[in-house]
Structures are given as structure tokens and as C-alpha cells.
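Example 3.2
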Amino acid sequence: MTTNTYPRQGEVYLVKALRTLGDTKKRPAVVVSINVRNQFKGDVLVIPFTSDLTSGETPTRVLIRCGEGGLESDSLALCDNISAVRKIYLERGPYGAVAPESLARIQQAIQVAIGVF
């Protein structure tokens, strides 16, 4: 059996609150940085999820259905909120991984958020 020794791109973890964003809740987040970076750096790049669907999908917010990546409810990936998080702040997980198609949609939404088309 192989054990992950570092977070992998596409995996979902519970992340401690990010004070810089004014966030006070622990929330699930998907790792979006590439595996070679994740292996050798002390932090990973993540996109947080929210279960508040009131804004709906937008070009920078991607709907991920309940169950995918271990999510307990339908959630929006907040691709306009990319953050570098030290690995020690990945509290639990991985719960699972998002599907390759969903990861591709998240990557496209990040590109929109940073103005790369």
C-alpha cells in the first residue's frame, strides 16, 4: 500500500482559517499546486470551498457536487481566492480528490481570475 508523503494536486483537505482573508472557519480546500512543488516546498497552493451557493457558478467559481473529493455538500470552489498554505495547516485529509474534469475547470477559473485567457 502506498501512502502519500505530501499533498497531491486535486486532493481535498480541511484547512485552518486564513486570517488574511478575514475567514474564521475551517473549510475544505483543493490543492492546485503541482506535485513536484508540493513535494519539496513547505506550503501548497489551495482553492477554498464554500457551501453557500447563493452566488451560483461564475467564471471564477466552480460548482463541485456533493461526494466528489469527499465533500459533504454541493460546494463552490472559490477560484478567485487562491492561497498559499503551510502544510502544517492542512488539518485533515485527504478526504478524496476532485475528478480530472473538475480540476481542469478549476484551473480554467483560476486563469480567468488572474487575467490569463
